[in-house]
Amino acid sequence: MPTEGLLKQTQSWLRTHGITISKTLGQHFLINEQVLARTLDYADLNPTDTILEIGAGIGTLTRALANHVRHVYAIEKDSVLFDALQKEFEGITNITLIRGDAVKVEWPATNKLVANLPFGISSPVLFKFLSSEIQTALLMLQREFAERLTASAGSKTYGRLTVMATYTATSEILEYVAPNCFHPPPEVTSALVRIRRCVEPAFTVMDYSLFTRLVVVLFNQRRKKIRTPLTALLREMELKPNTIEEIKCQIPWLDHRAEELNPEELAEIANIIYQVKPD
Ligand code: SAM
Questions:
Q1: For the chain, which has fewer Cβ within 10 Å, the N-terminal or C-terminal residue?
Q2: CATH architecture of the domain with range 4-197
Q3: Which pLDDT tens digit goes with each residue over 41-87?
Q4: Which residues does a 6 A CB cutoff place in the pocket of ligand 1?
Q5: Residue of 196, 146, 141 whose CA lies nearest to 168
């Protein structure tokens, strides 16, 4: 259920600042106080935390976070919202607003990422997080994206995203969030997801770019036995026919589909290619 108070506050804030909601920027503001409170709980905040928030919006989450932690850096792309927020937060010393596109701007050093993300940038933000120094992320994501992220091998939602994220992180869906918890409501259900970066990668990958390329190629034809797309990739790599055969001889899963292979098995295929191919 939306919370009347937060909905009214949001509408009044938007009116006062003359803000027109932008669909393209994925503006769906959180108006449910219970979800807001649970977001703070899940984030397991402590006074020494520095937080990166992406998409400050009208500052509901930003302000709530700032009450519990040392510092909040909040990135906002919408210039009109940004200017209004900057006035609003004048004098609050533990909030720094950053104007710009979170995918492009350099992220400040923080130890947690907390965001009610605009759905359009979920994938680049996730990969930027995975290659950053930030240890944990608590993200509001589109349900379908969250389920792809946390899927297990063999399931319908298992894919490239699951494999690449599993390499360096563990992800869990904490709860689903109904559209009426936002103003305006999005067309889809959301999910709050916690992602923890692993101290060490979950399995060995000898050549990351080869692994990425293999995963892309195999999942582009996820329902085909991997023999065909794999052979096409090896030819594209300009390997000699006898090298291609040598590689294929070492792979026990040629008659499996990509969606049936777990991330470790996919990494092993990439490692076999890496070890057999000439430098
Ligand atoms: N945090 C607020 C809340 O929970 O109510 C707003 C969340 S709203 C789903 C997403 C916010 O991200 C919007 O304010 C939107 O303008 C902003 N945004 C969209 N694309 C962005 C980008 N590339 N970089 C930074 N902010 C972006």
A1: C
A2: 3-Layer(aba) Sandwich (3.40)
A3: 999 999 999 999 999 999 999 999 999 999 999 999 999 999 999 99
A4: 25-30, 54-57, 60-61, 75-78, 81, 101-103, 116, 118, 121
A5: 196
